[in-house]
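To: structure subgroup
Subject: Chain for Friday's discussion

All,

I'm putting the inputs and outputs inline so they're searchable in the archive.
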Amino acid sequence: MSFKLIKKINDAQKKPAVVDVRSGDKVRVHQKIKEGNKERIQVFEGMVIRTDRKQSHTSRITVRKVASGVGVEKSFLLHSPLVEKIEVVKRSKVRRKYLSYMRQRSGKGTRLKAVDFDKEAVNKVDQVEPKPTKEDKPAKEAPKKA
């Protein structure tokens, strides 16, 4: 298989646009949950402690929150159809890509220095329509003369 064919298949799996999420951001992830024949949206809010492979179709973020005194971490594939949307609530100044040291901190020690940012501009995702390919376009018919 050629590299171009693999790249074309991988790009077809990507969402047209995703939110720019960075380590240290406090995010709200809306995820589809299927229970039997019902479907609902569950929100997971926490701090992004890791980002992986941002340009790939397998790009992933790891979000951590503390629930009832227990640390909970979840990984989300950004281009997964189960992830409805991601909202950036707060942006913090960090100097690393992987914030593993946040696992040992608790209480006020988990606070990071906030950075001002344009919340509307970051959370706005332009849904760009994919460009039609040659296969998608119908063949033009020659006009009939009467």
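Points worth raising on Friday:
The chain has a mean pLDDT of 84.
The CA atoms of residues 51 and 126 lie 21 Å apart.

D.
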